[in-house]
Amino acid sequence: MSSPNATRAMPEPRFVRNDDVDLATYQWGGRDGDETIVFLHGYPDAAAVWADIAALLADRFRVVAFDMRGTGQSTTPSGRNAYGFDRLIGDLEAVLDAVSPDRPVHIVGHDWGALQGWEAVLGEQLKGRIASFSTAAPSLDHVGHWFHGQLRAKTLAGLGRFVRRALASSYMLMLQIPVIPEMTWRLGLGRLWPRLVSRLERLPVAGRHGQVRDAISGLGLYRTNLLPTLRRPSSRSTDLPVQLLVMTRDPFVPAFLFDGMEQWAPNLRRTAIDSGHWGILARPADFAGHVADFVTQQRN
Questions:
Q1: Does the keyword Hydrolase apply (predicted)?
Q2: Among 109, 107, 106, 104, CA closest to 128
């Protein structure tokens, strides 16, 4: 999960249409010849979570972020499969068509935005449209293979690792339950959320209008994509440059889950950031600096 942040004013949105969804898209900076960086936010965030990082990069790059379907000022879709990875990749393609139709972009993902980013770089639909990928999470396929590997080992140590990780991620399974997660957000979690994140990261986090709506809409991400991928993870790879942005104190995405990502992305760089899961809020200058260095490296 990620956190809301509304401390910095956002640019006026431009709306990009994909099927029945209008995606609120925001841009910072951008001169002729600048590289374009597209940021993908996680759950239960909106594009505003990137505002501090975008401001730090806007003098060197064209920076773009958009409210994922069902969040911020974007449309909330209907239908059982409205949040499937195929729909999310279609949204990203529509945004790329609007902001950089003739030149590949660099994408950066956090939380579910990172999982969406992996689907984009490992799949075929956006081949040639992406120049590099910086990600704060491993691919969901990789996590699925990790769980299967612990069971296949048939050792007490492997079983112990499986159980400990499953317990630590049990909140994801709870989000699969009908009705109860929705009620939890409506009956108090929406008000408590900024305080919970503030305590975990030891920084002030502002509340955000629409937080409950976004959190409830985003449950579709878990219910549509999580269990099918973990049960039957695929095996794919990309030759694109990939940077792993590892938050060293992240309880939700522990550093060891990034081990072995070379099989998915041989052209890999691993970068550590001394923060918890919300390093994009707690350490925006560090995060922005690593993204800028990586993007610039691809240009040279």
A1: yes
A2: 104
Do the beta carbons of residue 16 and residue 94 sit within 8 Å?
yes
Q: Is 300 within a domain?
A: no
Asked whether residue 170 is domain-assigned, the answer is: yes
For residue range 104-156, list pLDDT tens digits in order: 999 999 999 999 999 999 999 999 999 999 999 999 999 999 999 888 888 88
Instruction: Map tokens 């099918």 to a residue.
Output: 228
Question: Which amino acid does the sequence have at 245?
Answer: L
CATH code of 61's domain: 3.40.50.1820
Lookup: tokens for 85? 């990875």
Is residue 227 assigned to a domain?
yes
3-state class (DSSP) for residue 191: helix
- Tell me the β-bridge partners of 285: none
Angle at 118 between CA 197 and CA 206, to 5 degrees: 20
Q: Structure pTM? A: 0.94
- Selection from 130, 117, 100, 103 nearest residue 40 by Cα: 117
Number of other residues whose CB lies within 10 A of the CB of residue 284:
19
Q: Domain span at residue 209?
A: 14-293
Helix (H) or strand (E) holding 120: helix 112-122
- Planar angle of CA 66, 291, 237, nearest 5 degrees: 85
Looking at the structure of the chain, the number of domains it has is 1
Residue 11's φ and ψ, nearest 5 degrees, are: -65, 160
Q: Please, what sign has the CA dihedral across residues 253, 218, 84, 13?
A: negative
